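Action item from last week, closing it out:
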Amino acid sequence: MAETEVPRSIPALLERNARRFGDRPAYREKEYGIWQSWTWAAAEEETRALAMGFLALGMRKGDHVAIVGRNRPALYWAMVAAQSAGAVPVPLYQDAVADEMAYVLDHCGARFVVAGDQEQVDKVLEVSARLPGLEAIVYVDPRGLRRYDHARLNALADVQAEGRAGRQRLEGELAARTAALGPDDTCVMLYTSGTTGRPKGVVLSNRNIIATARATCGFDRLTEAEEVLAYLPMAWVGDFIFSVGQAYWAGFCVNCPESAATMMTDLREIGPTYFFAPPRIFEQMLTSVMIRMEDAGALKRRLFDRSMGLARRVGRALLDGRPVAAADRAAHALGDLLVYGPLKNTLGLSRIRVAYTAGEAIGPEIFEFYRALGINLKQLYGQTEASVFITQQPDGEVRSDTVGVPSPGVELRLAESGEVFYRSPGVFVEYFKAPEATAATKSADGWVATGDAGFFEEGTGHLRIIDRAKDVGRTADGRLFAPKYVENKLKFFPSILEAVVFGAGRPFCTAFVNIDLTAVGNWAERSGIPYASYQELAGHARVLDMIAGHVEEVNRALARDRMLAGCQIRRFLVLHKELDADDGELTRTRKIRRRIIEEKYGDLIAALYGGMDSVYTETEVTYEDGRKGHIRATLAIREVATAAAPAVRLAAE
């Protein structure tokens, strides 16, 4: 294969990288507190041995191979090894409960499962009686599995050893299968988060992934020198495009943290140059900063506040290369020495060259905080069905209120309703076993309906997303209602972890709020407020006063927006439990399931609009071990002030 030729598959990219970047690091993993590394040449050898082992187990072309566990090099090798053998990798969410896992395994007809550890093996075994097509489970970590029945269990190291031992017998078959892979063969199948129903299997081809990776690496000038941290769910399309698609195209190193608990420490040790995080991660980072500053002495707080004031005024201009007065430039350099630099180092972001956020809209204040520090944080807009990228923000054109311009190779258009449609080389092949759903989403000429409402800015051509098209509505008096926009403004406050806003077809807007236990708990301890549980703290009068102040501040900001002034919140309550994916209230990617929340908490919504001061409720919850229980509480309902809004009425469309 000529070096200028575009490889036809991910395994072909691995072969190219082993030749081109053989001695460069491809993977690192932290285990038992120690970082271990594999070069591209070593990664290719590990992957080929595993692929031959899969052949020895009887893996056939077209088989579906489920992959479940935390981010580990061995699981990435398993995905590429399955592809090399002509099979289709299907990553699963590692925190999925057994029933959720059973649905995906049954729907895709998985013959093989590669599991990270005992926890994942246990979940598969729990539902294995419902999966007659499942033939073998391969596990990475053997701890706790010695006494299990190994009739269908195989250690990944043993599978690799079998592959190496049978190299002479298996290598030719593997080479033939790998060589037969083409751009239109399936690369991966990723399941949607199931916001509105059962997850759908999104079939993505080698062409989808490689064309997208090639274009977007060029957009941000990504090279083999980049370092990324692979910590997001392997079942999420973002992790696949960053940790497989772009990593294999550019040849950069993928670093796997030891655990979710050590992620921030591992982030600081690696110091990635290319970083992606959903808004909630940036929110959590900012919350930790604010908590530390509240605990700091008066002198440090004054220095921080003064320096951040300067950063907000000139930091973005410096980042974008715009002119800045010499005095401000000098003051900012001093601030970088004393405040910004140490802060970025503490967060693990000191080497960032490009950072992205997506998945949900990020609060403008949060976005501007990181930009002010000199971190090149940008927004992208994407979907699983697009192989992630639909729009990106070019350097020098980064703003909090847009998602940028079409990514290279992407076409955009708006329907009369405002819904965004796109077409690109990354557009998915189909929904697995769902031709009607495929036809409803993707037209015959390749245009895909996003389900999001937006508009193009005049002059810049940047796309602005308002909300999910189905969620955008009108209040009873005809004003525009965009709940996600308001929810994101509420979540800027460190005290608010989650919010759900109601108002479509109603006389005014109301909200459910989840407090952030870490932030509010820290504040409570400093304020001398005793509490024994989330529920007790969430119902405390002073906590409700604090949340009311945040809601009123959001109302004042909304009042200045003529389009969304009608979204001001009049009444709210703080929920007695955190919204949880295990209870069906959030997806595994932490998106709100509005319909389920409205059905489950209908009594609370009725109380918000019924003029009540409090409401008694009982809620079923799922504990970590799968047991069910009930939480009972009487929730206070607060009324808050709204701000004078521009006198404008938007006629219903």
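Closing note: The chain has four domains: 10-276, 277-375, 398-470, 473-639.
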